[in-house]
Specification:
209 residues, alpha+beta, 2 domains, 5-stranded mixed beta sheet, 13% strand, globular
Length: 209
Amino acid sequence: MKRTESLKKGITRLTTRNIDLYYKALVLNNAEYFYKWDIDTYSTPENMKRVFIRKPMNQVSLEHIFLFCFASQTSELHIDDDTYKISDEKFNTIFREVSYEQALDYCKSKCRVELQKKYPGNHVNWWNADKLFIMLQKAGFETIYLSGYSQSLCPVLRNTEYFDNTHPNLSIYVETQNIVTKLAAQVSNYLSCIKFDHSSRLEQPCGLR
């Protein structure tokens, strides 16, 4: 998760993996989607070590690659044995018997905060447009809208040499304007929550022109 922010009449831009794109690829058994962005990259010893996985991604099912993208600890890829693993059979049962978002939340709930601190860079949450909009509204943002690759309302943030250049085909882009001042503390807590999930980088602020 990345963010670009200016808390006073400015633009906050959030960029993260869009779990809906991953799930659609899984349902369609579109292995090429995963190969292009994850499987090829994380099937080499140096990259496996970097993200704490025990075996090459090209040796596990798409279900476990999908799990690693938002609930890393539950995937058989995760290097730590002291985690709750979800088998392919269990995975299919969960997503068949409860709603899509309930299934995602169930998998996420099996990830432990204390273990995440030991393996920084792994994923412990999922994001899509609906979830981002709801959480931003709760945090006190007044104007929220879906953006896209190089489509920021802030001219500076449309420079793809510096922004929107990390896996745009996998990402979702959401922007907000005009934060309610009295909720500044709540906004700060929300942004801290985002930072804990995988990684976050504070980019150059952009005020409205």
